[in-house]
Write a structure and sequence with these properties.
Elements: H1 3-14, E1 24-30, E2 35-41, E3 43-44, E4 48-61, E5 68-80, H2 84-94, E6 102-111, E7 119-130, E8 133-146, E9 149-158, E10 174-175, E11 179-185, E12 188-193
Antiparallel strand pairs: 1-4, 1-12, 2-4, 2-11, 3-10, 4-5, 5-6, 6-7, 7-8, 8-9, 9-11
Length: 194
């Protein structure tokens, strides 16, 4: 993105949409190749770490009202930790990824302001559809704008047992009932009509 386009987009993000007589939509397109979804599951004797793949993602934000729309879709079947036996158990007995192949987050509003050429934190509120059920959630997102490039990182916990999934603990391995997720992306930014 050129420095001029970055400056124009930043100015538009910070200008009340009503000043243009329309609601300007900030559109964020998430490229699966530029997005990582990592998880950590606290366990004894060791922490289990792995990744999932983003299938697609698009978010629209009205900077005047804070209203958000769109969805981020993760391929549940892509989850892997580097241990085939553990991963088979995760897919068959915990995620049941054959029955629930997608994990979806649909944002409905954002709180907080984005500061140009600096780091900002916003709260993205929405609904997770996970393991066949909807769960309301607010996700903190760190946003950085530097040299016309936007990056965003969200770190949050999913209480997967509370949400109806099985705890995969065994006699040998004891695991937490919550999993930590970190999503990092470098989105493409555009403008449109809301």
């Amino acid at each position: 993105m050129s420095p001029l386009r970055s400056l124009v987009l930043t100015a538009l993000m910070l200008t009340p949409a009503g000043a243009f007589g329309i609601h300007s939509l900030i559109g964020l397109e998430l490229d699966p190749a530029q997005t990582t979804v990592e998880y950590k599951l606290g366990a004894v004797p060791h922490t289990v770490e792995g990744t999932f793949a983003l299938k697609r993602g698009r978010i629209g934000i009205d900077p005047e009202s804070g209203k958000a729309s769109g969805e981020l879709v993760v391929d549940a079947a892509s989850g892997q930790s580097g241990n085939d036996s553990r991963d088979r158990n995760m897919h068959k007995n915990v995620l049941e990824s054959d029955r629930y192949p997608e994990i979806v987050f649909r944002p409905d509003r954002v709180e907080g302001k984005v500061v140009p050429q600096a780091r900002s934190q916003v709260q993205l509120h929405g609904t997770f559809t996970f393991h066949g059920a909807d769960h309301e959630m607010t996700v903190p997102v760190d946003i950085e704008i530097a040299n016309g490039r936007y990056s965003a990182t969200a770190h949050f916990q999913i209480p997967y047992v509370k949400w109806g999934m099985k705890n995969p603990s065994t006699f040998v391995l004891r695991v937490s009932d919550k999993v930590d997720l970190t999503v990092h992306t470098v989105p493409r930014v555009g403008m449109g009509q809301f």
